[in-house]
Each structure stands twice: as structure tokens, then as C-alpha cells.
Amino acid sequence: MPTPATIKLNSGYEMPRVGFGLWKVGNDTCADQVYNAIKAGYRLFDGACDYGNEVEAGQGVARAIKEGIVKREELFIVSKLWNTFHEADKVEPIARKQLADWGVDYFDIYYIHFPVALKYVDPAIRYPPGWGSKIEFSNATIQETWKAMESLVDKKLAHSIGISNFSSQSIMDLLRYARIRPAVLQIEHHPYLVQPRLVEYAQKEGIRVTAYSSFGPLSFAEFNMENADNCPRLFDTPTVQQIAAKHGKSAAQVLLRWSTQQDIAVIPKSDKAHRLAENLDVLSWDLEEADLKAITALDRNLRFNDPLNYGMYVPIFY
Questions:
Q1: What is the pTM of this model?
Q2: pLDDT digits (tens, 9 = 90+) for 107-128
């Protein structure tokens, strides 16, 4: 059965199930890619301070709005609070800077990017601040940060707030004191990292799940990670290839449908028109139950987006 194009959030807003991810989209092409994606039908754009391309993404949005292709209220713009801005008095100023970079008045959802608080870095000195050459932790608690996130909703700077890269334990803690519950949990999710208990827990708590890096090691090939370099591409596995051939779909479509059929949103990206169209077409057809189980059986509990894999001792997933 066709899957609805949007997901109802616990905040009352509707979020597209398929969006366009802005991680690793170059500054030289970002504005055009966002503009072309809007023309292709994308309405959700998943950005972050750390991606370093929010100004350019906003330029693409502004161009599409100016040409009458879309209205601001038809878009779902996502951004994230970086680790160096977790102190209560740093959250609103950086959110306002990011809004100004995008050229919009509010975010549709604003996430805590990682459950890690690092020492503050003044944006005038380094922006985006990244992890830095030396890891220096801050004493800001998630409770302090979340209270400041809630104030963004109160001030209408964000319609919804959410969390990214959180474990079940971290979510349990947050829910004890949250006045406004997180609307979405964004996590690395692909057939090599299925995380069924985390997904199940979030969904049972009414927290929607968005997958990033849906194509697994493909997203990390450039970082020379041993576990990514020595891992077969999901596109090339016999399981995915056979299922794709059976349904007359691409391997990418099969992987995205595997997620969306589990009520998980996805944020792929491409700079090719035919891929943009293919990636949107992952709601109108179904994989068979046997297909879903076969793809899930590829699970290796293999995480790529882990600070440890980048040489930083921040063992948040252990």
C-alpha cells in the first residue's frame, strides 16, 4: 500500500518522509542543488551548523521562493545545534545566527546534533567550530541544553525540537524532565546498522525516526575508515541487487523503501536529476515481507559515524 508522504509529529506539524540531506554538499554547488531539489519536488532540507553550507542552502531556498516555485510554509527546514553551543545562554544566539544564514524566521525542526557538550567556541573566531584539534568538554548537561531548546519553541524560532545520535538511555533520561518532548530522533540507520530496539523504543514513545546515511559505507568512503573501506557496498550485495531486479527498482530505492516501509523518514541526496526523482519514489510501492527480512538480515551492528572512527576519543555509543 502507498505510504503517506508526510509524518505527523507529536508537536502537531507534518514532516515529509523523504527529504534532501545537506551533509557534504559543497559550498560551490549547494545553492543550485537545493534549488534543483525544490524544483524536483523535495520539501525537507536537512542542514546543520557543522555542514558549513547553511548560507548557500538558504540562497537556494530564496531563489525558489522568489521564482514562485514554492512558499516558505511549504518547506520543512531542518538544522542542528552543534556541540560547542550547549550552554543555556549560547543556544538562542547560535540558533538566531543559523536562521539568519538560512534567511528564514523559524526552523521546522531544530535538533541537538550530538549528546556531547564541548567547550564554547566564539563563531567570530571559528565557524563552523567542528570538533576541534583537541577535545575539550563542557559541563553543560543535556537538561540545561534541552530547557534552552524548549525556549526556542516558546519564542517561535522553531516549530519542533528533536535529538540526533541519542541512545535509548539518553532518551529515557531526557523524557524525565522534558516539558516539550522531542519530535524526532535522527540516527545512522541502514541494513548494516539496524538498531531495532532503539527504533522501537523511540516509536513507542511517539518520537519519529529519521535515518541518515541510508546507503551505509558509501557515505564514508572518503574518510579512509577501515570498517567502511573493507565493507561491501550495500548496492553491490546480492540480496539488494536481487530484490531491486525483482521490483524493477534501483538499489538505492530498495534501501530507502526498506526504511520508509518501517515508518522511518529518509534524507538522501544527489546532484543528478534522475536520482532525485528515483529517491522520491520510495513510497508508492512495497517490498514483500520476505524482502524486508532479507535486507534486515544484513545487519552487522556496524556504525560508521562514530567520533572514534575519526580519531576522536568521544565514546558516546558505548
A1: 0.97
A2: 999 999 999 999 999 999 999 9
Beta-sheet pairing, 107-112 with 44-46: unpaired
CATH architecture of 9-310: Alpha-Beta Barrel (3.20)
Q: Which residues contact 200 (CB under 8 A, 6 or more apart)?
A: none
Q: What is the pLDDT of residue 43?
A: 98
pLDDT of 118 reads 98
Active-site residue, from 51, 111, 192, 212: 51
Angle of helix 168-177 relative to helix 142-154, nearest 10 degrees? 60
Q: Does the pLDDT of residue 3 top 80, yes or no?
A: yes
Per the annotation, the verdict on 120 as an active-site residue is: no
Backbone φ, ψ for residue 92 (5° rounding): -65, -45
Residue ranges of domains in the chain: 9-310
